[in-house]
Amino acid sequence: MKHLLLWLATVATVVAWAACARPSPTDAGTGTSAATSATASGAATEATPAAAAPADDSAIAPSDADDRARACNVCYAHNWQGGGARGYGSATSAASLDELADTGMGAVSLTAFGWMSSLSSTEIRIARVPGSETFDRMRVDAERARALGLDVMVKPHLWIGHGDWRGDIDPAEDAGGWDAWFDSYEAFILEHARFAASIDAAWFCVGVELVSSTRAHPDRWRALIAAIREVYDGRLVYAANWDEVDHVTFHDALDAVGVQHFAPLAEAPGADFATLRAASQRWLERWSGIAAEVDRPLVLTEVGFMNRAGGAVEPWVWPEHLPDVGSEAGDLEQRTAYLATLDTFGRADAVEQIYWWKWFSDPDTDEEGIVGFSPRGKPAGTVLQSFCAPGDP
Question: Which of 35, 51, 251, 304 could in theory staple to 357 by disulfide, Cβ–Cβ 3.0 to 4.6 A?
């Protein structure tokens, strides 16, 4: 009961952190460490317009059906407010899935959660309280999605108490350390793998941004992947944080190299299309090179940009870290980042799928406000709809 009460108290502050990607201090993606600096404090920044972006939403168009299948997929997020009344399995969610199918989307990822009380905990608990993403709720939406012709990925995440990031997990030695943590994680992930098998999910994600564990114990991950294959015969991917991809040594045990793409595309707000596209191309070449080494396709398990000035500078910054800075400059920057990503990753044969973060089960939610990641009703959404519109490319 103590753990349950703590979990309930944490939900309101942690839920939007569920897929938050942490930056590295420096990286080569934009050429200098400045790309990962400065605006995480949340101060509003005056932006210059990204004027070089194509004015016509159809200017970046799919060249063939493969481009559309590659780029037109979304991370489908459960709305937990109001006891999940408009979340997975609801009539609202059914209508939201219908809308996605009508706009030409080909796949959705469904997010389940496990909970840890702290970074040092060795126990992972599945959330089974009203309003959460239960197996029953996900099954309803998975069946709906498949009836609409949408493939499904099941993608379990971990919540950490107090809003800490799962990439920093460090199990306490006096509680059994990593051995105890992996034992608990194996039970958690196998239960979800069996669920994925029961709904005939096309993909199953074996883990998300568990950086400290992949660095410390890659052999345990290989054993875990083998155990998952005993209960699930679909395709497997690990969702590596954008600055973790290079260090994962078990990509070859999986069916794709997965990336949580919240990497910087610019050093300052308002960068033009050419700048964002060039940075996007560098990330594509870096990660597709890793995928080629193990003869696997690349899957962007998440990619997204907040609708704010600076959204392409620090894509990992979450809405609750910022004041409401308005949307005029953000509309343009989010749109330009979508165009740059579509014109690089969206056209690359090395990339099998791109999942955009994110689309809510309640598309009219105000959970993240005008500066949130969802492209719906924004210029970025118009770009995506244009690219994904059913019909001949």
Answer: 304
